């Protein structure tokens, strides 16, 4: 069957996903990167698309949901115009230490406070950084964190990525305000592939907010992102992803965090938009004293489909990780959480926790939860919990007895339920921004 | 995909999906129409149409076996009554959709709900 | 580190059932499996034609299904099965009187405490030796009330209609590879029918013993609990330790009719060269109540997930599971509950202990279909690790399609803490006593559910032997 919508909307760019595209996108790249793309393409070509027979894709049928053969690559954004929809979002943002804007897979601006630049902080288009040989890009890009060998889709990203963010924070440098990435996808039926590479050197400190937006699309439109986060000894990194694509958006993220000795590497994934959102997050705790707080929040309605696949890899002893993902599902939305804590042999003294809680708000909404533990050491403290339930009747009753309409009372209870996640985020401005985004969605739900 | 044609019945959207002779008594056949995968079953000359998807794990029922009124899913052994779509044996616990069928002039027509 | 000795002192690892009996089977098929072997089994049992064709069809299904790629390590199983005797007939007929059981077989069961158990207050006792039941008896009191407690073969012979109506309806041959294998070569097991309204106040017990080296034991049990009836069935399993691997693959089908209550207790203590791959499932109708109490202590690898299909309003399913994985053992166990009807409730409680290089895995499914309004399900898994080489996993699947369902899952992993040990030892206990107390406290919520009134395997192992090791 063909995707009939694709016929109605003219394709922009029109470059199909094939080997030539991989060559073309890397034409101006240095040799090492060309080679890396080529190897990645070979892995992509040799690997079958995961089917629902594969445990990790049990509930998301890529073969029916992701029409790779009809998607096309977008043409590079020309000029530096900010689309109106993105402009509105940018205006709402609170102050930041640096800002980078990405439209249809190309960075159109990157600004950094002079004081930070003076301290040696680097914020750049990843493409420029790679071509100019800045920092450790060659050593770190698609090697330790999200290499092509991770699977068919990470390989495709590695072969085709057009641009992204490179952020490097020198040892001991502390950023008070977050760095913001604002991303926009304009064209229906396109597939954009981008990457984020963040290196926080020893004892440095940085937070990064990655927001993606788009209009509604009539055809499946893919935004695929590889996120590579390195926290060296004692560094503190906070990464927030706020996914607010329009309907028709297919958001695919391959995230890996590497926390070394005494480093803290925290993440928050917020899924509000798009038709399909799939996030693979692997947190690796590589040194004693490493810590990862992993937060997630999703609110689906209509026929939205959110799928989170997380893993907490305790490679080193005496590290800690704590995951909390909460979701509310309305309409015919489906939420899937699959998480695994892996305590590797020798990782004694591990503290690892995992909690997934779901609220089902309508008769046709669904929630699947698969919280897994794989423990190969004995001196550990591990637990996981999962719940699926409906709105707290007592809370509803209380609010309605105070004169609130049922609808409004329900919204408040949902907000309270999801708000627990945000209360753990040590970034007031960002939490407020996310709360606002949820409120907006609740209002139109 | 089989040829599709407008059925002689007035009003409803009947579509021709197969020649009756292609589904002899005791046999089943997979057909596709209007984006639906459907399995036809012939029980002693009576034709029935069911969604070609086991309610247990979505495998195609058309790979299975018909015994009397009972269609068995080959993958895990669930059975369904082809007349009603009702599940009659574990591991399936839910019915599958059925569709109205008519045979006219040796052709099998069905109507999508 | 004395911990190893301390744990051995608990008695869980002393395999007391490692003795062999020199008994001559009256018949056995050649090693390996093909359609001829299946025909021979069926012919020996003088089965009707429909059963033979069902067996042959099941054999085809077995051959067509791939080995599971999940769960335990089955990579050497194919080779094991090529050397396995699929059918070893111990004697010509099933005895109703204990005195008629051949002396050496009788001795085996006496060493295992079977007649002793019967002398206590059991309602009925069955004993399987290799491929068939050698003894089956039911107290007159229950027989007169219409209770049927037969070997599965006698069930087919004496109650052909009831048998055929229900056999393979809860677990079809195609359900999984090993259910298909069992459906092809099944032999032994029980056929149980509890008439409506009959309450058995004492348990029925079946005992399974493997004696023959390289045996495959494939018992098949079919239980029909009539409306409003109540009963409790217990199975116990042991085998001698051989240098080659053995194979046990049972299929247990239970129909719990309206408002009936049924409990099925397994006390599995196979030797550590046994593959134990079992399918157990109950279909629970309106107001019915099914409990699986599943104790897995021995075997090389166990893969077993008792399940409840709650298809009637207000049906209740309960799975209490305890697993002990000693050195080199893998217990891949858990439970499945499928909520289909409104107001159904379920609870899964799983406790596992891993020692040495043992590995215990919890694998479970909790599924609530759309329309199972107000379903409530709760899962609790706790794992205790004793050594730094021990391993545990938890793989729950929670699939909820119903808005009004309330589902919870909690799991914890802990080790026997130095603090705990230190505290208890400061109260005057030696390390062995302290360890025993901690392990017993850990399994207590499940152990207390076991039928203490007669001394069969699990009790002796978990309760008495631990105490014994302390003194």
Task: Explain the overall architecture.
The complex is a heterotrimer of chains A (445), B (113) and C (471). By secondary structure, chain A is α/β, with parallel strands linked by helices. Chain A is 24% helix and 39% strand. Chain A contains 12 helices and 21 strands. In chain A, the strands form 3 sheets. Chain A has a 10-stranded mixed sheet with strand order 4-3-7-9-11-13-15-17-19-21. Chain A has a 9-stranded mixed sheet with strand order 5-6-8-10-12-14-16-18-20. In chain A, strands 1-2 form a two-stranded antiparallel ribbon. In chain A, β3 (98-103) and β4 (106-112) form a beta hairpin. Chain A starts with a helix and ends with a helix. Chain B is built from no helices and 11 strands. Residues 1-10 of chain B have low confidence and may be disordered. In chain C, strands 5, 6, 8, 9, 11, 12, 14, 16, 17, 19, 21 and 23 form a 12-stranded mixed sheet that branches. Chain C has a 10-stranded mixed sheet with strand order 4-3-7-10-13-15-18-20-22-24. In chain C, strands 1-2 form a two-stranded antiparallel sheet. The two termini of chain C are 21 Å apart. Chain C is globular and about 60 Å long. Chain C has 471 residues and is α/β, with parallel strands linked by helices. In chain C, α2 runs antiparallel to α3. Chains in contact: A-C, B-C. The A-C interface holds A 55, 348, 358, 360-390 and C 70, 368, 370, 383, 385-415. β20 of chain A pairs antiparallel with β23 (391-400) of chain C, so a sheet runs across the interface.
